[in-house]
Amino acid sequence: MIKGMSSDNIRGLVLAVSSSIFIGSSFIIKKQGLQKAGASGPRAGQGGHSYLYEPWWWAGMITMIIGEIANFAAYAYAPAILVTPLGALSIIFSAVLAHFILKERLHIFGMLGCALCVVGSTTIVLHAPKERNIESVKQVWQLATEPGFIVYFWVVLVVVAVIIFRYVPRYGQTHLIVYIGICSLMGSLTVMGVKAIGIALKLSFGGMNQFKYYQTWIFTAIVIFCCLLQINYLNKALDTFNTAVVCPVYYVMFTTFTILASMIMFKDWDSQGGTEITTELCGFVTILSGTFLLHKTKDMGKSASGRLPVYTSPDPIPISSSR
């Protein structure tokens, strides 16, 4: 695997895996903080912000920031179509930690789902495309202002606005897809902005200052705005629904939209043949199958058939209406 990869892709791979460890852990730490804060004040899912005074939540936030920094650096070296699917590993770390810390038990089908995520991630790594050679952030700006990505950008903003003002008040507390949809759509724009800033930093450290261009600061503003929106609605999702469900569903939607945005903006398929693209798609479908299994079998064992559940929690929150 290493011999067939460029040095930049290897750096991106190591950073992406490190990022998954930190981010997967952060979900559990933040969940503990949200639970402690909810016991003494308004819950985040109900619009409360008492978690801001909870040390556990800040510990989780710091852990997530470390993971995002590693993820940020990974995008500077490797294409998004390689880095983003590796986020599936964070599901495994969060599922294992939730099993031991939050008592959200992971059983045989959960383990199978995790295994599928690993297989799919490995397939994508083995057939990852080489990074596009970019010599200036202006090149990224040119890609971002082509008609295809401009249409995608505005469609995302309109859809997110409709969800926030129309569907969040009605279905936010009962339908997981509402909060996660906002996080995933905005996350795809965040990744494209992070990719641009990562390239700018990489080139600047190499002696070519990219922060003299206004385009770099526009990308920075977009990333800040998108991140704040994501954090707000991810907190609501974690406080309202089971962590073992939030993580895989968020991953599937986030990865899908991010790969779509990357293909539109960076045209990752240009550097690959048809066989390579087909193999990567197979790897992605394998990951989707694993996360789908994690989500759809979470309630097994609650029916009269007595089948073994994948996840159980001492304080389950009904989410059946979110399907």
UniProtKB/TrEMBL annotation:
<dbReference type="Pfam" id="PF05653">
    <property type="entry name" value="Mg_trans_NIPA"/>
</dbReference>
<keyword id="KW-0813">Transport</keyword>
<feature type="transmembrane region" description="Helical">
    <location>
        <begin position="12"/>
        <end position="29"/>
    </location>
</feature>
<keyword id="KW-1133">Transmembrane helix</keyword>
<keyword id="KW-1003">Cell membrane</keyword>
<comment type="similarity">
    <text>Belongs to the NIPA (TC 2.A.7) family.</text>
</comment>
<feature type="transmembrane region" description="Helical">
    <location>
        <begin position="277"/>
        <end position="294"/>
    </location>
</feature>
<feature type="transmembrane region" description="Helical">
    <location>
        <begin position="213"/>
        <end position="234"/>
    </location>
</feature>
<feature type="transmembrane region" description="Helical">
    <location>
        <begin position="83"/>
        <end position="102"/>
    </location>
</feature>
<keyword id="KW-0472">Membrane</keyword>
<comment type="function">
    <text>Acts as a Mg(2+) transporter. Can also transport other divalent cations such as Fe(2+), Sr(2+), Ba(2+), Mn(2+) and Co(2+) but to a much less extent than Mg(2+).</text>
</comment>
<dbReference type="InterPro" id="IPR037185">
    <property type="entry name" value="EmrE-like"/>
</dbReference>
<feature type="transmembrane region" description="Helical">
    <location>
        <begin position="176"/>
        <end position="201"/>
    </location>
</feature>
<protein>
    <recommendedName>
        <fullName>Probable magnesium transporter</fullName>
    </recommendedName>
</protein>
<feature type="transmembrane region" description="Helical">
    <location>
        <begin position="241"/>
        <end position="265"/>
    </location>
</feature>
<keyword id="KW-0967">Endosome</keyword>
<keyword id="KW-0460">Magnesium</keyword>
<keyword id="KW-0406">Ion transport</keyword>
<feature type="transmembrane region" description="Helical">
    <location>
        <begin position="109"/>
        <end position="129"/>
    </location>
</feature>
<comment type="subunit">
    <text>Homodimer.</text>
</comment>
<keyword id="KW-0812">Transmembrane</keyword>
<dbReference type="InterPro" id="IPR008521">
    <property type="entry name" value="Mg_trans_NIPA"/>
</dbReference>
<feature type="transmembrane region" description="Helical">
    <location>
        <begin position="56"/>
        <end position="77"/>
    </location>
</feature>
<feature type="transmembrane region" description="Helical">
    <location>
        <begin position="149"/>
        <end position="169"/>
    </location>
</feature>
